[in-house]
Amino acid sequence: xxxxxxxxxxxxxxxxxxxxxxxxxxxxxxxxxxxxxxxxxxxxxxxxxxxxxxxxxxxxxxxxxxxxxxxxxxxxxxxxxxxxxxxxxxxxxxxxxxxxxxxxxxxxxxxxxxxxxxxxxxxxxxxxxxxxxxxxxxxxxxxxxxxxxxxxxxxxxxxxxxxxxxxxxxxxxxxxxxxxxxxxxxxxxxxxxxxxxxxxxxxxxxxxxxxxxxxxxxxxxxxxxxxxxxxxxxxxxxxxxxxxxxxxxxxxxxxxxxxxxxxxxxxxxxxxxxxxxxxxxxxxxxxxxxxxxxxxxxxxxxxxxxxxxxxxxxxxxxxxxxxxxxxxxxxxxxxxxxxxxxxxxxxxxxxxxxxxxxxxxxxxxxxxxxxxxxxxxxxxxxxxxxxxxxxxxxxxxxxxxxxxxxxxxxxxxxxxxxxxxxxxxxxxxxxxxxxxxxxxxxxxxxxxxxxxxxxxxxxxxxxxxxxxxxxxxxxxxxxxxxxxxxxxxxxxxxxxxxxxxxxxxxxxxxxxxxxxxxxxxxxxxxxxxxxxxxxxxxxxxxxxxxxxxxxxxxx
Amino acid sequence: xxxxxxxxxxxxxxxxxxxxxxxxxxxxxxxxxxxxxxxxxxxxxxxxxxxxxxxxxxxxxxxxxxxxxxxxxxxxxxxxxxxxxxxxxxxxxxxxxxxxxxxxxxxxxxxxxxxxxxxxxxxxxxxxxxxxxxxxxxxxxxxxxxxxxxxxxxxxxxxxxxxxxxxxxxxxxxxxxxxxxxxxxxxxxxxxxxxxxxxxxxxxxxxxxxxxxxxxxxxxxxxxxxxxxxxxxxxxxxxxxxxxxxxxxxxxxxxxxxxxxxxxxxxxxxxxxxxxxxxxxxxxxxxxxxxxxxxxxxxxxxxxxxxxxxxxxxxxxxxxxxxxxxxxxxxxxxxxxxxxxxxxxxxx
Lengths: 555, 348
Prior knowledge:
Largest sheet of chain A: 12 strands, mixed
Mean pLDDT of chain A: 87
Strand content of chain A: 15-25%
Distance between the termini of chain B: 13 Å
Low-confidence stretches of chain A: 1-44
Low-confidence stretches of chain B: none
Oligomer: heterodimer
Helix content of chain A: 25-40%
Strand content of chain B: under 5%
Mean pLDDT of chain B: 83
């Protein structure tokens, strides 16, 4: 998910045919881990107090089927529940509205809790999930959201689904077109949240209203989503919310947001840059909470545009020549770690045997000589200028790349573009090389390798790159790389349901191939940073599926 | 008092001015070379999709057709639909209506700060010419003119919010308050104004009112400092000129007290050039709103204008620029009318 994104991924769906995916960590049969839930009776403790949460932008909409930006998802995650969910703070799946599930690879049968009510008082049944699914994906359905409004998550989440049926009141059966390992994880993504059939059939808009089953209900919506108040749901089926209210506030300026945490009434903030992190670290009464994120940042070399980059030795040389340790330590101020592959360490399938390319100019020079570019060459590095979660200081990082590559005879021209222009430019494949990055949607390795390094089409014979203008090309593969061996492994892994070991081995191998072939200069895995007041307890950084604010209390 | 005819004449003159402004706005965006159809289609859209949008929305019509359509829509306060910030939603209803009061409130209080401090300081400076008070005021004014908002803003925040902890550094009101309409007056439900300090009073929430005032103090001061400096300088020199006039000597000669001489005969006449400065400053202040809103986390017209420019959301840019221009013209109109009250000769 494009956490801070104001850019739709709608067209990505068109480009990839909507086959984004994930791994079944829980295996073929669901666990019924209740994660200490109080099982419906709401617990004894009274909810009290208010959590004030400041983020960088307003919530665009609360409609699960219209949103793809983190600022909206943070709020809907409090209001809507999914059939399964991420364990708070971890990249693992646990029971939520469904208590158990069975799968044979193509069909998943999920059993729903029978004690859940929506905020409007209606009981949750399997029909609610079916109606939600149809509203999102079925143009024939009377209350279909419409192709214009539906986000690419319709395809990302349900693209492989053939049918969804309510077998009885509490059983949902999901059938996929082929064996599709990531399906269960997709059900934990925000976009698979369950809406009330009764509300859907009113045909109302759910931009600034919401009826879910989650721990909080919508209480007030102001200034087009800049300020939102949620109230504890006393009938929540899981752990009872510890705070009575949550207020989400939009504070656009990074430094102002930090000030509001350190000296005003805000309890939790996100979207923290390196400078803000230093300030929070040095302030009293607040804490900087840090965790390696499910993100990856890289420099993609465009094989289609530049012949030089089609030579593996040149690509490796660039990896040796750029001092990524210095970038991570000095420019990103240590709030990131060096990267050796696309899949971040906290995601299964991450190959632990791989080390980041060391900074070695001699090696780089000799590789360039072997490749016949001893005299170097010129290229243009295109970068965005606004901080992104995966590359917090893009301009400075680009400068560093230029300085480092000059040492080995490669002259880099830096071209800066605003975010939207940048995306349009790189998606069209006009760049020689560019910075880019990715945030996990469902915490699955497929969700990194498939969209970022798979071309989405067959590569031409004996050629390990594809053309951006080819029909069906996955435009998020910014290097145009199309390695047959890599593609086969990723495709095979997607269909393995009941054998985690084999599946993860395939991903390990795929990571090894991309590391060696080096279509990117692997840059970093940035940390997730949050600023939290000392008065707050129970808050955990959740790199995916969060924040879990019902577990949070404020003194 | 200004004659009705004068006011009507000034109002009619607004029409060509506004047409002129909208033409310039229209031209600038069309010379920009950005393809609105491509922006709307989004990333990775095919050429075909872009063409469809272009035809649907009439971007391929001759420029004068687009221009007349634009003028007729704008005259009905229809600024079109947002491309990026709120895709498909009307610019006026879903964006500007909320943001405009934020900026207006900021500008009003900023100007209030400037006038309330600038005028007395200027008068004081003039009456006590070449005294220590005069020198301090003049040096202060020089400093006020020289200091940019993006420096004074953070500085005041560090002092008053971070070190002293006296005033809040951002937002329009404490997080806990949700100021929501409608408010009820004599049994009628009326919409709120969007001005925090007014709305809190309308709703009878005194705590929230004080919170709103507290939140306005720093930004208003930051915006007002520059204006205060200019006003006090202008007031001083204008006042110095006036006190040397014959009618002041006449007033004194007939034995009138210093206070009445200065306030009634002096101040009123000295005000005319100051009014001009206040009017122009109000315009500058709308421009300064971009910086102040950013520094203090107010989400007003200035911030939305910058966001819209960055995102390539042309209808929003057009609308915001037009609204700024209209406000400026209206302020100028008010200044002109005030002139004619202060000096009826201007009407001729």
